[in-house]
Design brief:
- The complex is a heterodimer of chains A (39) and B (210).
- With 39 residues, chain A is an all-alpha fold.
- Chain A is rod-shaped.
- Chain A is built from one helix and no strands.
- With 210 residues, chain B is an all-alpha fold.
- Chain B is built from six helices and no strands.
- Chain B is elongated, with a radius of gyration of 21 Å.
- In chain B, 33% of the residues are buried.
- Classes of the chains: A mainly alpha (39), B mainly alpha (210).
- At the A-B interface, helix 1 of A face helix 1, helix 2 and helix 6 of B.
């Protein structure tokens, strides 16, 4: 279960989401750009 | 602090790496200016283009890592201090670092095509001045942000049990950073070659149109 009981635990989950969304969102954007540019 | 301290394992490596990538940007920008000044040799022209592509890639990765550093820092601050933000020396100089590299990317996006590389290389030199100030800010001015974890004197450091998680995260995010930097560089080099091909194609098509 996601620990949403306290403010600090909620912010920990938000921080995990921020890290993975930003880093792997950028990775996905790069993959799309790679496919768009021709050799 | 309970489970909240786990933010540290993401926050620290991302912030440290966001101090490393701007130096790659600075190095590539200086190399660009050097090779551009010697571009009578065609090899140097090609090297200058490669350095410019690397400078763009490293600036983008800097903004990425600094954005994560800011986001995790603000979430940590809200839960630990009860505030999202304070104009503390480290936070202010770090926000400035983020703004400088965002402005670098905006300059590249909106400047006239022929001037983009030179203007952004010069901006990169000025932007790099903020990195040592930001790094030293928690040593020079003791305000809200915690004291340095590494190389901060006798009172600094973390519990030895935390080191494995810190080093694994540092290694993993550094490898990911090198991977996205390499991929972004390769994409930019492809774009440069595409622009060259398009320009040569329109030149060769011009006599047929007359």
């Amino acid at each position: 279960m996601i620990p949403f009981h306290t403010l600090s635990q909620r912010h920990l989950v938000f921080a995990y989401c921020a890290v993975w969304l930003l880093q792997f969102g950028y990775g996905v954007w790069l993959a799309v750009q790679w496919r768009k540019t021709r050799r | 602090m309970g489970n909240l301290q786990r933010i540290f394992y993401y926050h620290l490596p991302q912030v440290i790496l966001s101090f490393v990538f701007p130096y790659l940007n600075l190095g590539a920008s200086l190399l660009y200016l050097f090779w551009r000044s010697r571009s009578l040799n065609p090899k140097n022209g090609e090297r200058a283009l490669a350095a410019d592509a690397f400078a763009l890639a490293s600036a983008e990765v800097t903004v990425l890592y600094a954005s994560v550093g800011l986001a995790t820092g603000m979430l940590w601050g809200r839960a630990a201090w009860g505030i999202w933000w304070t104009w503390d020396a480290r936070l202010t100089t770090y926000l400035l670092l983020w703004l400088l590299y965002v402005s670098y990317l905006l300059l590249r996006q909106f400047s006239a095509a022929g001037q983009t590389a030179v203007l952004s290389a010069v901006l990169a030199i000025f932007a790099a001045v903020d990195i040592p100030i930001c790094y030293m800010s928690i040593r020079w001015w003791r305000t809200q942000h915690p004291a340095p974890v590494f190389a901060g004197g006798a009172d600094s450091g973390i519990d030895p049990g935390m080191y494995p998680a810190v080093w694994w995260n540092m290694a993993a995010w550094a490898m990911w950073g090198v991977f996205v930097l390499g991929l972004r560089y390769a994409i930019e080099r492809r774009r440069q070659r595409q622009s060259e091909d398009d320009a040569l194609g329109s030149l060769s098509a011009a006599p047929e149109a007359q």
